[in-house]
Amino acid sequence: MAVNAKKIAVYVLVVFVLYVIITDPATAADYVQIGFEGISAAAKAIGDFMSWVAHGGK
Description:
- 90% of the residues lie in helices and 0% in strands.
- With 58 residues, it is mainly α.
- It has a domain at 24-58.
């Protein structure tokens, strides 16, 4: 039963994403850019933390 719910949730999400892309591509591009900026910021923060740890936490 949980697998069916997961499949339905994924299907609904895919339909929503396609709807947003088709009806307003500029907004969809903004969402993608925001997502990539977030991923980039998180990767930079992890890199800064690992550098800090490698230098003995100083």
